[in-house]
Backbone:
């Protein structure tokens, strides 16, 4: 339990960095550009001074007040900073967190502002703001003046083909391409590189196209969601999110190899967007379900980040879920790595 030492740690960080306001959260592990620390007590600190950047830190003390009210409270503190664009970084507590309500409320209040971050992790979870350590709160910072590049690695590789959902009800997919959904899923598993054996060892998920107007669809255009049930008699499958008729779906496979490949492709995309510019600094929000438990080796993701983008100041932690946009909409993710890079 690191919570009792959090106040002392905050004072030490302020003393060393000279930072006036600190924003942070507990994690299942922490990381920097040098290494990832799991299973040990550690702290990762990023001190930023950038004349281009306007930063407005804030704290909603009671996240349990209701996510719609929390969204209004966040917007009241962040809207002036975000009037000219930018991004919103949130570090919520997992207790009482309802992502669709909060993100929907923020969208209504702030418009299409990218939301990034991760949920606090560890035991117990806690949040950090200024000189205080607290629980059940929502700290964050609104950033504008320097447009970040955001890479979202959902850890999956697509299997089978993309098809249109032709019958659905709520979160239940009844037919895909006028065929029973379960039949289409089985065909995708059979065609998986490495065969059904790999699919059985890995996890199979649904990829839902976010933008109905986008064509052709690419890897990053799909929102990955859990498969939560199947009915053998009807051939229906249940997905961990609402689906609609006309939406494109493609099944996804997640294991260490798929996650590594996806991160490599995501980082190549970030490097392309940098277009020769050097990263000034960045944050990386990694899922507690990744790390050594997934890859079997330490420092996997930060090693790949350095390989593709070079060395630059980086801080982050392993959280209980991640926040990041897919297309122009913000979503809650799991098993995902979210990299936020500010170009020099």
Residues:
């Amino acid at each position: 339990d690191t919570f009792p030492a959090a106040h002392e740690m905050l004072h030490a960080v302020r003393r060393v960095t000279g930072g006036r306001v600190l924003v942070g959260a507990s994690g299942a592990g922490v990381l920097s550009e040098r290494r990832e620390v799991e299973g040990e007590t550690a702290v990762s600190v990023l001190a930023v001074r950038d004349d281009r950047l306007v930063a407005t830190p804030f704290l909603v003390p009671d996240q349990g007040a209701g996510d719609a009210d929390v969204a209004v409270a966040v917007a009241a503190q962040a809207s002036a900073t975000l009037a000219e664009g930018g991004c919103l970084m949130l570090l919520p507590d997992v207790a009482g967190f309802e992502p669709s309500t909060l993100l929907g409320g923020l969208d209504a209040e702030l418009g299409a502002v990218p939301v990034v971050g991760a949920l606090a992790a560890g035991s117990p979870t806690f949040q950090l703001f200024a000189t205080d350590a607290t629980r059940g709160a929502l700290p964050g910072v609104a950033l504008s003046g320097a447009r970040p590049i955001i890479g979202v690695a959902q850890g999956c590789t697509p299997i089978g083909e993309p098809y249109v959902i032709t019958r659905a009800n709520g979160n239940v997919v009844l037919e895909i391409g006028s065929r029973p959904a379960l039949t289409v899923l089985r065909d995708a598993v059979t065609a998986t590189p490495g065969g059904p054996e790999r699919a059985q060892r890995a996890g199979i998920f649904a990829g839902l196209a976010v933008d109905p107007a986008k064509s052709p669809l690419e890897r990053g255009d799909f929102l990955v969601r859990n498969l939560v049930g199947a009915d053998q008699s009807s051939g229906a499958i249940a997905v961990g999110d609402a689906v609609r008729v006309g939406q494109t779906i493609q099944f996804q496979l997640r294991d260490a190899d798929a996650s590594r490949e996806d991160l490599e492709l995501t980082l190549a995309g970030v490097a392309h967007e940098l277009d020769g510019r050097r990263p000034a600094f960045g944050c990386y929000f990694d899922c507690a379900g990744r790390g050594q438990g997934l890859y079997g080796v330490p420092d996997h993701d930060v090693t790949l980040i350095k390989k593709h983008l070079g060395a630059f100041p980086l801080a982050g932690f392993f959280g209980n879920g991640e926040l990041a946009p897919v297309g122009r909409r913000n979503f809650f993710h799991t098993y995902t790595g979210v990299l936020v890079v500010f170009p020099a």
Remarks:
- The longest strand covers residues 222-231.
